[in-house]
Amino acid sequence: MGVSGGYQSARHGPSLSPGGDNAALEEVMPLLELYAAKDPKSGVPCVSSIGPGGSGHFVKMVHNGIEVGMLSALCEAWGFLNTGMGPDYHQIGQAFQQWNNEGELHGTFLVEIAADVCKARKRDGGYVLDDVLDKVVQDGDASEGTPSWSIAESASRHISCPTLAAGLFFRTASGNRQERLKVAQSVAMPPPRSFQDMMDKDKMVQDLRRVSEFIADMLEPFLNMNKTPTNAKLDSRVGRELQRNYGVLKDIVSRGLAYDDYIPALSATLEYMKCSGGTMLPTRFVEAQMDYFGAHSYDKPSVPGEDPGPVAKGAHDYEWKPA
Fold it and tell me: Where is this region: Disordered (predicted)?
């Protein structure tokens, strides 16, 4: 069974996603409904039968994997604002609060708490955030296993999720701060710099809002309408939204690269948007090399049954270097 809600669920109840045998779930559901958190508007318990076997915890695992990508996008947005544009934490918190109140990110929990984190002050007047070191250790100390399980599961199912993987590996790289500081002395990489050519600060903030999580609310109605969705990008509304935000994301990533910002998840998202809809990728070169050293075979362009064809071993080999 998946359980969400953090330590506050001890007082307010958790969100539960149980899975298993229907008869067993019917027996325990009254207890779970009593224990679960309640929707503040409807009073409906935050619990529902997910499916057979361990599907409840599987859904929770995927949820946590997606959360890693979302957390990284917000983290990178915060860094972009903090080092690139120079507002104080309270001003960044105000921006996050505005994002949560309107637009694509309206009512997004992680954006809501991002505003709280930015604004939290100590008794001496300083910001609590200044007391937080930059190392995320939960993946390395094994107290948080679901994100890495999600990435492993996506790989085993041949599903590309580079944003989530980039977010996880960003956290992993941050965790070993001791080694990081030694590497910093060895390679002397340039730190992020403040922007010198920013013409419209407000537009930059709004562009950053759009690229941070522009798909967050858009997918909910799509999933509600489709009982067995396969690829959300095939939906015309999702496609239009991705197209609308592509240029903005490209501009943000370009600026981040120019000023040495840390943007692994945002840049991975851009590259995924490019390659997931590419009609002729340079990966044909990879396929050729693999056929060269391992006779892995390949399909040919414009050949019926091969192009586009199934995800299966190709029909052709070439003797690149005669024996």
Answer: 1-20, 301-323
